[in-house]
Design a protein that fits this description.
The chain is an alpha/beta fold and about 375 residues long. The chain is built from 13 helices and 13 strands. The protein has two domains: about 190 residues, Glycogen Phosphorylase B (Rossmann fold, 3-Layer(aba) Sandwich), CATH 3.40.50; about 180 residues, 3-Layer(aba) Sandwich (Rossmann fold). β11, α9 and β12 form a beta-alpha-beta unit. α6 packs across α11. The protein is globular. The model has no long low-confidence stretch (mean pLDDT about 90).
Length: about 375
């Protein structure tokens, strides 16, 4: 009897506190393990506590959890090579860069975004140089390049033409943690706008703050001036931004909240007026779908993955136009029925993005690589 093929998933970059990339790994593993598959899996991670989903998964018997010793990501490639050989892996899937250096079997690599190329000033110099050195090498070695959105796929193909025949879109899904939570369509008249994201340049918070100032300047007499609650990790490349946030917080225009766990974030989503998410660049855009799940209207960018994810269920704005962002804020506050129409459109949008679909497309990529390997061995 032939041996069941083994897929080794590299989740060495998934580290708490989890942000979008790390949570995407948890979500994908959860979805792959939700049903039995014609494969066996090994999951390599230095933080097995993030993957307790495997304990109760219907297909848990097909999974082996391999705990990696903590270490620098740059050194993980060699460890994964040795692990793949020891386990006899038939496919290795690196869930982000850097991938294994010389895997003994077909390699799939997931690319989340190319912000370090499109917005070089948004990434610290050392990290930017590391990405620039490791990503092209990994993409050349990869037999399949999985991308989290069609927009990311186009961006990768344009930047690295040699990948065009290897790109396989496996779009992400609505974050599972939002399912089944109570939400209301009613919002208090003085509810604040909400910003969710790390305090780093590509999230475009500087233009959001300028838009807030414009929106407050046009507030009619007797009406509450719009406020903004800023939810997010400390970020990087942001000293002038932090100074500006503190000044605006002193006036009462901004609440600088910081990082929130999922329960606290949900409380913020269901009590806000609208989500402001006009990033300069995103590979996907989880906050868009999280807001829609909370019946919160969304204002986001008219470009890339954000347009792809939001569709017609959000107000799309030029992220480089503070006046355009301010106009969208004014529309949410003053245009009768607009917020409710956006919420209803969001309800219809959420089922478009499912982790089951992500898992099925990812599984198809594995089977394709196994076919290639089998054909090559004959």
């Amino acid at each position: 009897m032939s041996r069941t093929p083994l897929v080794l998933l590299d989740a060495s970059a998934a580290r708490p506190p989890c942000t979008g990339v790390a949570w995407s790994m948890v979500e994908l593993v959860t979805a792959l393990a939700a049903t039995e598959r014609p494969l066996h899996f090994a999951l390599a991670t230095p933080h097995p506590e993030l993957f307790t989903c495997l304990d109760a998964a219907p297909g848990h018997a097909q999974w082996e959890l391999v705990e990696l010793p903590p270490g620098r990501l740059a050194a993980m490639g060699w460890r994964l090579d040795r692990l793949a050989r020891r386990l006899g892996a038939d496919v290795v899937h690196s869930l982000t860069i850097p991938p294994p250096l010389r895997p003994p079997c077909p390699l799939a690599v997931t690319v989340h975004d190319l912000a370090f190329r499109s917005l070089p000033g948004s990434v610290p110099a050392a990290r930017r140089l590391w990405y620039a050195a490791t990503l092209p090498v990994g993409l050349r070695r990869a037999d399949a390049v999985l991308v989290n959105s069609e927009a990311t796929g186009r961006e990768v193909a344009a930047a690295f033409p040699f990948t065009a025949g290897k790109i396989l879109p496996t779009p992400f899904g609505t974050p599972a943690w939002t399912a089944g939570r109570a939400a209301t369509r009613e919002r208090a008249a003085g509810a604040p706008f909400l910003f969710v994201g790390a305090l780093e340049p590509r999230k475009n918070l500087d233009n959001v703050l300028t838009a807030l100032e414009l929106a407050r300047a046009r507030t009619e007499a007797g009406a509450p001036a719009p406020r903004l609650r800023v939810i997010g990790a400390p970020g990087w490349c942001n000293r002038p931004l932090l100074d500006r946030l503190r000044r605006m917080a002193a006036t009462g225009a901004v609440d600088l909240v910081g990082y929130r766990d999922r329960d606290s974030l949900w409380s913020e989503l269901v009590s806000a007026r609208a989500l402001l998410f006009p990033s300069l660049h995103e590979g996907f855009g989880f906050p868009i779908l999280e807001a829609m799940a909370a019946h919160l209207p969304v204002i986001t960018s008219d470009r890339g993955a954000m347009r792809e994810v939001a569709g017609d269920a959000a107000l799309l704005v030029d992220p480089e136009s503070p006046r355009g962002i301010a106009d969208a804020m004014h529309r949410i506050s003053s245009e009768p029925g607009l917020a409710d129409r956006l919420v209803r459109a969001g309800d219809a949008r959420i089922p478009v993005w499912t982790w089951r679909s992500t898992a099925e497309r990812t599984l198809a990529a594995y089977l394709r690589l196994l076919d290639v390997r089998t054909d090559g061995a004959n």
